[in-house]
Amino acid sequence: MQEGAQQFGNGYSKEKLSVGAFPIGILKFMSIFMPYIKFQSNLMQIMLNNIDTFESQKTWDLLGKPMISVEQFAKKQ
């Protein structure tokens, strides 16, 4: 996921975007004092523990591989 975010940031031309990392433990601690961060903390925990499997091969077989990369998409934004 971080690689995709980095590719998007590299291709985005309207302004300079950077990708960073934030320790989940600090986010969970902050959610005690800032309840609106609790959702983000829970979402990040799910994303970190989710094993992402490649499911696009069937679609690629039917429609062909994508003709645009993440960076090319970001340049059009």
For the structure shown, list the relevant keywords.
77 residues, single chain, mainly alpha
What is the secondary structure topology, with strand pairs?
Layout: H1 2-11, H2 24-33, H3 38-49, H4 57-63, H5 70-76
Summarize the structure.
With 77 residues, the protein is an all-alpha fold.
Q: Given the C-alpha coordinates, what overall shape results? A: flat
The span between the termini is 19 Å
* Category from helices, strands and their pairing: mainly alpha
What's the rounded overall pLDDT mean? 87
Low-confidence runs (pLDDT<50, min 5 residues)?
A: none
In terms of quaternary structure, the protein is single chain
What is the strand content? under 5%
Number of strands: 0
Question: Radius of gyration in whole Å, from Cα?
Answer: 17 Å
Give the number of helices: 5
SSE order, one letter for each helix or strand: HHHHH
Number of domains: 1
Can you walk me through this structure?
By secondary structure, this protein is an all-alpha fold. The protein has one domain. 60% of the residues lie in helices and 0% in strands. It is built from 5 helices and no strands. The chain has helices at residues 2-11, 24-33, 38-49, 57-63, 70-76. The model has no long low-confidence stretch (mean pLDDT 87).
